[in-house]
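Case study 2.
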Amino acid sequence: MNITGGDEIEFSITYDPKKLEMYGLTPEQINQTLQATNTTLPIGDYVVDKYKHTMNVDNRFYSVQKLRDIAVANIGDPGVIFLRDVADVQEATKKRETRSRLSLRGSEPVTAVTLSVIKKSGGSIIDLVDE
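Prediction:
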């Protein structure tokens, strides 16, 4: 399935060079910590009726506050350093690459979200409709 239209969110992180220097940290160190933390891990599958579902532990960042609260270092004194201590974190709308619009009966077009369902090789569209 493909989804087009709608707004996608991204996060902007602006490091404070003085605070990084004060704590002896670099942007590269913090970026590595963020990449290692922003993950989804599969933990198994389960079957209900004839459908197989995958279970995951989802540690991805979905909010500015969760991102600000990530511990990026642990230094003897002052202790745990959070991203909020060394950077400004903001939420922004990602630049759109595609747009979806909807107009009913000649009305003014409005922003929409489009879901495209694509048939897999060997799949049956009739079976999909019946399900």
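Residues 27-37 form the longest helix (11 residues).
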